[in-house]
Write a structure and sequence with these properties.
135 residues; mainly alpha; two-stranded antiparallel ribbon; 2 strands; 78% helix; 6% strand
Length: 135
């Protein structure tokens, strides 16, 4: 549980970092989201991995979300868990956008980023519910 508490200050510090004035704001936002998503998905999956049978019986929706994120998906680099493929797709499209800033590339990146953000928001919600202190 302490590791998840340490995650919040890291996320806040990353969001406040000094930016290169010439940096593309869209790319900066994509990279910030990627960084937070990676840490959040890792934290949620690590928590579920502590005792999958416990989470399966006591928080089945949380466990199903984690299993959904672990589901193998196809990517150019091979078969990877869904959470990884979402991040790889965003990274691939970010590279294409940086190489050629066309409307088509920005739209594809935006859509892929939206999918990643939706999963990230859900992971954050589960993190809040599962790690909330019991009174």
């Amino acid at each position: 549980m302490k590791k998840l508490t340490l995650l919040v200050p890291i996320i806040i510090l990353a969001a406040c970092a000094t930016l290169n004035p010439k940096a593309d704001p869209f790319v900066v936002r994509v990279e910030q989201t990627q960084s937070v998503a990676s840490a959040t998905f890792d934290a949620v999956l690590r928590l579920d991995n502590t005792d999958r049978s416990f989470w399966m019986s006591n928080a089945p929706a949380f466990h199903r979300f984690c299993e959904w994120g672990r589901t193998p998906m196809a990517h150019i680099s091979g078969i990877r868990p869904r959470f990884v493929v979402m991040q790889l797709n965003v990274d691939d499209l970010k590279t294409a956008y940086k190489n050629e800033k066309s409307a088509g590339n920005s739209n594809k990146l935006f859509l892929s980023l939206s999918v990643l953000k939706d999963a990230l928001n859900q992971a954050n919600s589960w993190s809040n519910v599962i790690t909330a202190p019991i009174h």
